[in-house]
Design goal:
431 residues, alpha+beta, 5-stranded mixed β-sheet, 14 helices, 37% helix, globular, binds histidyl-adenosine monophosphate
Length: 431
């Protein structure tokens, strides 16, 4: 028993390693992100789904793949009191597909479009941007094998990033289908066998269990060895090649920035054809803040009909880290919405008139009053805190052109000089 007058130190509890409480001011960016997600999902006609926090373990092991890191060592699995094995969801795709099958959604519409905002659980080593309970928002389109569906889900994410001012360039790849993948697999295994000396222990294990995953290895020696490894893109069947080319054309049509990266293979077994990720240099080692792709075999694998599907999920903690970073770096002034910049005369008069037109339309705008170079004006635009710049330029062939540049993301597009106010009004309504 404690002596009278001596304080007894009470045992207190702390949140579990890799989990966090979010409250006070810190909740505000979460609300902003969630509101942006809901608003864009609404714009694209996706409806929300909320699935249970835990599911039968078999749902995840069968869909994600027995040999993957997630199923092998990262799942929170427990035995229920009746002996059934249950798992806290490590990702949202398998539960959405389970719900799609269970509720016969296929009978309600030829294409089902769903989105979710939910906590996920993976027992990874916590570090910057990596938690054991983390949050994802994601979208899944079930029912279309067309490249339009791939590009639509990418366009959703692109739009969310645009609204938040986050730079978004997709790394895309095609990992083929059950028809062309075995051809590549055989070539890859032959290559890996012949280059065993240049591979780490994990890659040698993957060579046997899931050879494509060697491309995920971060080990420098392995990366050098794998530079000359056969890639799936060179061995796609005709349909997969056509499909990948269509995806790229549609991304071009929608002005969505991307680069082809044959090393993107993703850590799940359910993927087919298009796979994509978005990375940010602002994040450090855990640089991927979004990942997704097509999974044409998953609905059937989980007991449904043979229905193609595609989707993505984004890490919300990582997106908030990026937002915090870019906002810290930006000059904190209220700033105008638009900065109008131009090359030399006679464009100066036009630019000056445009600032006035925008102000007449109730849009806060600013421009140069010193007759400086375009470069100097663009510096001022950056410092002013403006969201967008309208740039008047004279090109040798095209003559006068007007460019609208998002000053947060650097994305830009050309439009007609007579449409300046209309175009700006539209983006003001849109954001
Ligand atoms: P994923 O790449 O495993 O894909 O996760 C998507 C994003 O979740 C990652 O890019 C990352 O930003 C975030 N994330 C993953 N693990 C953690 C963690 N431990 N801590 C913080 N953030 C994390 C999927 O989950 C697939 N279900 C995506 C998908 C949807 N594919 C098709 N449809």
């Amino acid at each position: 028993m404690a002596k009278k007058g001596k304080k007894v130190k009470k045992e207190t509890f702390k949140s579990v390693f890799g989990t966090r409480d979010i409250f006070g001011e810190d909740i505000l960016p979460w609300h902003e992100l969630e509101d942006t997600v809901r608003s864009v999902m609404n714009l694209f006609n996706y409806t929300e789904i909320r699935t249970p926090t835990f599911e039968k373990t078999e749902l995840f092991s069968r869909s994600i793949g027995h040999e993957t890191d997630i199923v092998g060592k990262e799942m929170y699995t427990f035995e229920d009191r009746d002996g059934e094995s249950l798992t806290l969801r490590p990702e949202g795709t398998a539960p959405v597909v389970r719900a799609f099958i269970q509720h016969y959604m296929i009978q309600k519409a030829p294409v089902t479009k769903l989105f979710y905002i939910s906590p996920m659980y993976r027992r990874e080593r916590p570090q910057k941007g990596r938690f054991r309970q983390f949050h994802q928002f994601g979208a899944e389109v079930i029912g279309s094998a067309e490249a339009w569906a791939d590009v639509e889900v990418m366009a959703i994410f692109n739009r969310i990033c645009e609204r938040l001012g986050i730079e978004c360039t997709f790394k895309i790849n095609s990992i083929g289908c059950p028809e062309c993948r075995p051809v590549h697999r055989e070539l890859l295994v032959t290559f890996l066998e012949a280059n065993r000396a240049g591979l780490c222990k994990l890659c040698l294990e993957r060579m046997v269990k899931n050879p494509l995953r060697v491309f995920d290895c971060k080990n420098e020696t392995c990366r050098v060895t794998l530079r000359s490894a056969p890639i799936v893109l060179d061995h796609l069947c005709f349909e997969c090649r056509e499909n990948f080319s269509e995806v790229r054309h549609l991304l071009d049509d929608l002005d969505i920035s991307y680069e082809v990266d044959s090393q993107i293979v993703r850590g799940f077994d359910y993927y087919t054809r298009t796979a994509f990720e978005v990375l940010s240099e602002l994040l450090g080692a855990q640089s991927a803040f979004m990942g997704g792709g097509r999974y044409d075999g998953l609905v059937e694998e989980l007991g449904g009909e043979s229905v193609p599907a595609v989707g993505f999920a984004a890490g919300m903690e990582r997106m908030l880290l990026i937002l915090e970073q870019i906002r810290k770096d930006r000059v904190k002034t209220a700033g105008p919405f638009i900065y109008v910049a131009c090359e030399a005369e006679p464009l100066r008069r036009e630019a000056f008139k445009t600032v006035n037109l925008l102000r007449n339309a109730g849009i806060s705008a600013d421009g140069d009053l010193l007759g400086r170079s375009l470069k100097a004006q663009m510096k001022s635009a950056g410092r002013s805190g403006a969201e967008y710049a309208v740039i008047f330029r004279e090109e040798e062939k095209a003559g006068k052109i007007v460019i609208l540049r998002n000053l947060n993301t650097g994305h830009q597009k050309e439009f007609s000089p007579s449409d300046v106010v209309k175009t700006i009004r539209k983006i003001k309504v849109d954001i």
